[in-house]
Specification:
By secondary structure, the protein is an alpha+beta fold. The chain is built from 13 helices and ten strands.
């Protein structure tokens, strides 16, 4: 579906929020990490001030005059010295644009593995784990220079490309993740922050990445290599919602993205998300969202 959105975006009819791929960066062959300054991003990528999404992870390190941030219908004011985490697929944009300072780290999920680090990316950096996501992390004064130093050094290494720069940037990214975990340990955990079993975490990560590709509980269980009944029982025990509830919520989120950021009518959105009957999609949307798709679109716009 993201390929469809990407290919049709410039055809005159907006079919969804624009999807930017990692290949858009002028990175060398095989590189899966890009670090740029926030100032350059505002100057060179003005088209990304509109709501959009990526097929990769991003971490924004924002210093002075930081803007506000919108992600999937939530608005976050950003204080000075904060990290902002954006997973693939999430629709986002900055609000009041100012001359913010900082860096933007863009990377693919398997970047560290490709550099010889056999690690669990989500355990290394919990805020980007879709099972336990966190959008904004205020960095305490004791960690500001450390975070700034790691980001600056990664930017310089990727810019200069001296001998061993890829090894250095991978090590620096892991060190940044350590500092992020230390910042988290010094802050009260939000009420929604849970430690899930590995299987439930895999389900939630997969759901975040494929909200419109896997639409039945049986397909999900098969994808994860377990029985539907066992997965349903485990997920319901750990999250309070069963598989079908999670799947419906993600489909409705994706439909909200299309209602808000595309010119597709309700029937076209229903078909694009895999519904054979648009009227059933409308009933389901009203059941989950408390209003009809048209009412949501009119209220958002």
């Amino acid at each position: 579906m993201e390929d469809l959105i990407q290919s049709n975006y410039s055809s005159g009819k907006a079919t969804g929020p624009q999807v930017f791929q990692f290949s858009d960066y002028a990175a060398g062959a095989g590189e899966k990490l890009h670090v740029g300054t926030f100032e350059d991003a505002l100057r060179l990528r003005k088209n990304r001030q509109r709501p959009h999404r990526h097929d990769f992870y991003q971490i924004f390190w924002l210093r002075h005059e930081a803007p506000s941030f919108n992600i999937d219908f939530y608005h976050f004011p950003i204080e000075t010295d904060a990290l902002v985490f954006v997973p693939p697929g999430a629709v986002h944009n900055f609000g009041e644009l100012k001359a913010a300072e900082g860096f933007i780290l863009s990377f693919q999920e398997d970047f560290l593995e490709g550099e010889g680090h056999s690690v669990d990316l989500f355990a290394e950096c919990p805020p980007i784990d879709p099972a336990q996501s966190r959008t904004v992390l205020a960095v305490p004064a004791s960690s500001v220079n450390i975070v700034q130093g790691y980001c600056s050094r990664m930017f310089e290494e990727l810019r200069d490309k001296r001998e061993g720069y890829r090894t250095v940037t991978a090590a620096l990214l892991r060190l940044l993740f350590v500092e992020i975990r230390r910042c988290l340990s010094n802050q009260p955990a939000p009420s929604f922050f849970h430690k899930y079993s590995s299987l439930t975490a895999r389900f939630l990560r997969m759901l975040n990445a494929r909200p419109y590709q896997l639409t039945t509980a049986s397909e999900v269980a098969k994808f994860l290599g377990v029985s539907r009944s066992w997965l349903n029982q485990l997920v319901r025990m750990e999250t309070g919602k069963n598989l079908t509830d999670h799947l419906r919520s993600r489909l409705i989120l994706e439909s909200k993205r299309l209602l808000a950021h595309s010119d597709l009518n309700v029937s076209e959105i229903a078909y694009q998300l895999g519904f054979e009957d648009p009227s059933y999609f409308t009933r389901l949307f009203r059941q989950v969202a408390g209003q009809s798709p048209r009412e949501f679109r009119e209220g958002y716009r």
